[in-house]
Amino acid sequence: MTYAPTVDDPSPPEVLARLRALCLEHPNVTERPSHGEPAWFVGGKRQFVTLADHHHDDRFAFWAAAPAAAQEILIDNDPVTYFRPPYVGHRGWIGVYLDVPIDWDVIAERVREAYSTVARR
User: Residue 13: CB partners within 8 Å, gap ≥ 6?
Assistant: First the structure.
């Protein structure tokens, strides 16, 4: 099942601006491109979120570090929103589609979890 965006949905630049703000509100976070996409790092080295703007498929999403076992639970409970991303999925990262209806409180929670997962290493 795919979601068809409506005229009321935020545009990718608006979604990126909100995602960027959520990532940058955490301490010691920097943004720089990684593999051609905006990405956010803790302490300048440890990546915790990256945008996935149609780079690997035709979907608009982000990938985030996730606590142990979260990936399987999130995907099983909501496969319309979550997926196992290529390259980092085997390390437990979660993919979050941004071309579906967005609950920004949930997105904020995924970003907080990603930050906490990487920052405590």
Answer: none
> Domains of the chain (ranges plus CATH)?
18-119 (3.90.1150.30)
Q: What is the pTM of this model?
A: 0.88
Whether the CB-CB separation of 51 and 19 falls below 8 Å is answered with: yes
Lookup result for tokens 């965006």: 5
Query: CA of 87: how far to CAs of 37, 94, 114, in Å?
Result: 15, 11, 17
Q: Would you call 32 helix, strand, or coil by DSSP?
A: strand
pLDDT tens-digit map of 94-116: 999 999 999 999 999 999 999 99
Enter the DSSP assignment of 29. E
Q: Which residue has the tokens 């085997």?
A: 90
Instruction: Report how far residue 66's alpha carbon sits from residue 62's, in angstroms, rounded to the nearest whole number.
Output: 12
Strand order in 60-64's β-sheet?
A: 29-34, 37-42, 46-53, 60-64, 94-97, 82-83
pLDDT tens, position by position, 29-84? 999 999 889 999 999 899 999 999 866 677 899 999 999 999 999 999 999 999 99
